[in-house]
Amino acid sequence: MTHVLAADPTLADFGKDPLWITIIKAVMLFAFLMLGILFGVWYERKLISRMQNRFGPNRAGKFGLLQSVADGIKMGLKEDIFPRTVDKVLYLLAPVIMVIPAFLAFSIVPFGPMVNLFGVQTPLQLVDLPVAVLFMLAMGAISVYGVVLAGWSSRSPYALLGGLRSAAQVVSYEIAMGLSFVGVFLFAGTLSTSEIVKAQAGGGEFLGISMPSWFAVLLLPSFLIYVVCMFGEAARIPFDLPEGEGELVGGFQTEYSSSLKFALIMMGEYLHTFTASGIAVTLFLGGWRAPWPISLWDGANQGWWPVLWFFIKFALTFSFIIWVRASLPRVRYDQLMALGWKVLIPLNLAWIMLVASVRAVMYVRDGTFTDASLVPVLVLAAAVVIGALAIWARFDTVNQRRKEARKAQVEAEFEELSDEPAAGGYPVPPLDLPHYHGVQHKEIPSGTN
After folding, report:
1. Where are the domains of the chain?
2. pTM of the full predicted structure?
3. What is the DSSP track for 207-218?
4. 404-435: buried (b, 16+ CB within 10 Å) or exposed (e) per residue?
5. pLDDT tens digits, one per residue of 173-183
6. How many angstroms separate the CA atoms of 122 and 104, rounded?
């Protein structure tokens, strides 16, 4: 059973703060995100450079820490260029639509328990709702309108294609992401982020020692599916098809010069990455709760210490996103769509049915759930689902190789009909073939009609 501390906030603790405390928390959240963007850009450049055996930023400031500040000043002072054919209203509004929902989505992320802030007991979270996770999904869907409008208002074919790609990508991966949360809702019994963190407070025991019941362990397939959808939702490599520098120049942002509008677009992308990392920590990695064995300390989850644990988990998740960017190439568009519709959504539905069945079996007569055999059952179920997916992927790869081999064989047989097939066209059969299409050609003696 879960162990709830007195410092754990509940939905009843929200909406009671004085206005000045709410303003202070909003300013603290805004400062955290803005400083996080500046530091995150520098950290991503440094980490990727180390992976590629380079130095990265090292000129502006100590260790290049002021490089992001210099870039921001440069984009803010550069001349703002408007192409002649753009729709100016939507062209200016699109970057704003990308940024504001990203800020609002992060407002439901809990940073810690109840604390004393200037003499007032308040939760370290700006706002919480009974449907907080759905609010986050709604904000993510609204921000896509900014990408679509940016591509459409630019009146450029490359920008328009980038906007259309983004719309199709979000429709595909928003469904899979929402389904990956269903298992969490079934176990937590709520859609409130603070209540979901509370549901991960202490689970089973291992060798007589209390272990945290993170949903990333109990619901491993849901966590893995969310990780994949996280890249698709944030449009990060290998799923950065809306930008597609290789084939679309810059995608939806092609017509935006390196000015303040471009800075807002970059800010919106980083905020979506931060939101995806924060939601991963909150729903699957225990939130602000201390990891084991630090959780054995009685004061680990009280006071301001949980902010440190949240930040460590957040930084590690963000580092994983950067690691994937430095390791994997961009996938093809058909591969992106096939993965979302043919793999993630069916796998999600099968896993939800399995989780719901397990919860129904565990339901007892008094109307409560028992967690006595929870971990072994779910670990076994996760192993079955992952094994089935691995077997399917293996046989699908084999079938794909067979199709490619048959195609290569047909092409080779077709090319044998001509010594020099025309490049890009139909091969021209030579005139000296003794047999061609099953018709035998006989030599005609010279001088005869």
Report:
1. 11-372, 375-411
2. 0.77
3. TTEE----HHHH
4. eeeeeeeeeeeeeeeeeeeeeeeeeeeeeeee
5. 888 888 999 98
6. 19
